[in-house]
Write a structure and sequence with these properties.
Layout (H helix, E strand, L loop, with lengths): L9 H9 L1 H11 L4 H29 L2
Helix pairs in contact: 1-2, 1-3, 2-3
């Protein structure tokens, strides 16, 4: 069965936020056929980038030191 909904599932939303490359991949995969789904994946990935940078800084400075 083919899913024709133009919404991003919660699983992929959280995954693209936690792992921004997956969000960018989902954007390029769905940008022509499902523009709302692609836009939401891109926004989630863009939010995930600074969170990942901040998390990496905190890990390196306070936890692994």
């Amino acid at each position: 069965m083919k899913d024709n909904k133009d919404t991003l599932s919660r699983f992929w939303l959280v995954t693209s936020n936690a792992l921004p490359p997956i969000g960018f991949f989902l954007y390029f995969k769905h940008r022509n056929t499902h523009p709302n789904k692609a836009k939401r994946a891109l926004a989630s990935a863009m939010i995930g980038v600074p969170i990942a940078i901040l998390g990496g800084y905190i890990m390196n400075t306070f936890i692994l030191n």
